Prior knowledge:
- The protein has one domain (about 5-205): P-loop containing nucleotide triphosphate hydrolases (Rossmann fold), CATH 3.40.50.
- The protein is built from five helices and nine strands, in the order βββαβββαααβαββ.
- The protein has helices spanning about 45-55, 95-100, 110-120, 135-150, 165-180; strands at about 5-15, 20-30, 35-40, 60-65, 75, 80-85, 155-160, 185-190, 205.
Amino acid sequence: MNHLLPALRVQGLTFGYPHRPVFENFEARLLPGPNLVRGDESTGKTTLLRLLAGDLVPQAGNLVLELPGRPPAAAPFRNHVAWFDPRSDALEGQTPRDWYGRLPQSQAAWDAAALQGHVQGFMLEPHLDKPFGALSTGTRRKVLMAGAFACAAPLTLIDEPVAGLDKASVAYLALALKQLAMCTDRMVVVAHYEALAGVPWAQVVDLPGA
């Protein structure tokens, strides 16, 4: 079956940690453009992103990615996802410039011009040659978001984007998401506790307990 626009279906998702259930028969549908996954602390926002990224495996249910001209694919989605966990220490010792230089090798839709625009928008030039371990929380997140947006993957996952960001960077983030609202070939899933002003969300998914 072919699809004119991408979509991601969460069907009967069940997942939990020992002694802490998170999702039980959860359903959602994500659409092209920016999608907001909204919920309070410990409602499963990051867990859902990790399930979509393939870091975690559902205990029941299905995650199905529908892309134009392709049959529906079940998770993990392999080369169709851009996900850089801001809590990971995998990049310690590297610099943003070096990391950006390697991303095109694993991202088929890499957009170098978009990266330059996001680097400027997030005011990252002074930090490109610093090791990740020396970056502040906000700068680290901006580096990861700039890279994720430039990957231009069909599915881009962004976790708690405004943590540590200054007002100017929050405003640029909202602008970048607003521009992505015009894209019909990409889904951006943002996990956050509230909507960002000025962003025309394609879909808002309120998690159980939110």
